[in-house]
Amino acid sequence: MWNEYSIGLAAAFACALVGFLALMWEKDDLHKLLLVDLVETAALAVIALIGTDLSEALILPGLVVGIAELLALSQIYLVKEGYQHMPVKGLNIEVIMRSPATVIIATILAVYGIILSGFTGGAIAGLGIVFLLMSRSFSGDFHILEMASGISWALWVAAFFVFMFAPEWWYMALMGAAVGILMKVITKMSLVGAMWGDQG
Amino acid sequence: MNEIGGAPLFFLEFGDIVIYFTPFTLALFLLALVFSVFVLVSRPERQLEIAFGGDAYYAKEISLSELRFRRFMSIACGLACMGAMVTGDVFDFTLFVSLVGICNVGIVAAVRSRHVQNAAYQYGLVALAGTVPMFAAAGMVAATTGTLSMLELAKGTATVPVAARALLVLGVMGEGMAPFYAAKAEMFRAPGAPYVIMCSLSSLLIFLRVTEVILLI
Fold this sequence. Notes:
Distance between the termini of chain A: 51 Å
Distance between the termini of chain B: 10 Å
Number of domains of chain B: 1
Order of helices and strands of chain B: EEHEEHHHHHHH
Largest interface: A-B, 40 and 33 residues
Largest sheet of chain B: 2 strands, antiparallel
Radius of gyration of chain A: 21 Å
Strand content of chain A: under 5%
Number of helices of chain B: 8
Oligomer: heterodimer
Helix content of chain B: 55-70%
C-alpha cells in the first residue's frame, strides 16, 4: 500500500492542502494570486510523480495553462485596482548598461542554449537575449522576430506531421522539431524581453 | 466495452490520441458549434442607463475593439468546448476544460466595470485553483493505469482509483463556476450579453461531459 508513489502523492497533497489553507486565511487579492500559483506547483508535482517521459510531456502544457491564467489574472488585477502602466526603459543599472559583460554573458547563454537545442536550449538562449535586450533598452522593429517565430513554429508542426505520416524520415523530423522549437522559444522570449517596457 | 454515450460512430486517430464521436458527445459537440455560430453573427446588447434628473435614458456605446475581444473570447470558448466534447484522452480533456476556464475569465473580464472585474478576478482564482485537482487527477490516472486513453480505460482492464475520479469532478466544477460569478455581477442582462451565454453553455457542456467520462473510465 505505502509504496514510493503513495508517499510522494501524500507529500504533494499535503503541500497543496497547506497552500489551500493559506488561501482561506489570506484576505489580500494579490497575495491570493501568488498563493494560487504556489498551489499550482503541487499539481505539477503530482504529474511529475508519474516518473516517465510522459510526465515531462504533461507538465509542459500544464505549466503553460497555469502561466496563461496567471498572466490573465494579473492583467485583470491591474485594471481592477486602477494601476497605471509605468513604462520602464531598461534595467537602469550603470554596470549593466555600460560594460561589455552583458554581451559576454548573453553570448555564453546563447551558444550553450544552441548546443543544448530543443525546448530547454531555446529557453536558455532566449534568456541570454532577454538579458541583453533588457540591459540595452533596445527599441526597434520586431516584425522580423515575429515572423521568425511563426516560421519556426510551422517547422515544428511540420516535423510532427512527418513523425505521424512518414516515420521512416524520423531523423530529419527530429532535427526539424529540435531546431523549430529552439528558434521559437528564443524568438518568443526575446520578444518578451523587448516588449516589457511597452504598453501591453 | 462500457458504452455510456452509445456506440462510437467515428474515430479520428492521431497516433495514440483518438478523437471519437458517440451519439451523446456528437449532440454536445453540435450544441457548442451552433452557439459558437450564434455568437459569431450576433450583435452586442447595449446597456441602457437612466439619466438622473430628467425623463431620459441613453444607451452605452461598446467600442469596436471591446466587441472584437469579447467575440473572440466567446468563439475561442466555443472551440475549446468542442475539443473537450470529442477528445478521447483524459489529459487533453483537462487541458481543454482549463482552456474553457481561461476563455470564461476573458469573457467576464472584457466588461470594463469595477464590480464585474472583481467578479472576474474571484472566478479566475477559483478556476486557477480548479486546475490543481484536475491535473492531479489526470496524473493519477496515468500513474495508476498506465494509460490516458478513455477507450483503453473503458475496457475495464484497469480500475481508476475513486480519489482520481473525485478530483477530476472537483476540478471541472471549479472551472465551470463561471455562471455563478457572472450572475453575481448581474451580467446576464446587459453588460456582456449575449456573449456571456457562452459561460453558461460551456459550463453545462463540461459538466455533462465529465459525467460521461467518470462513468466511462
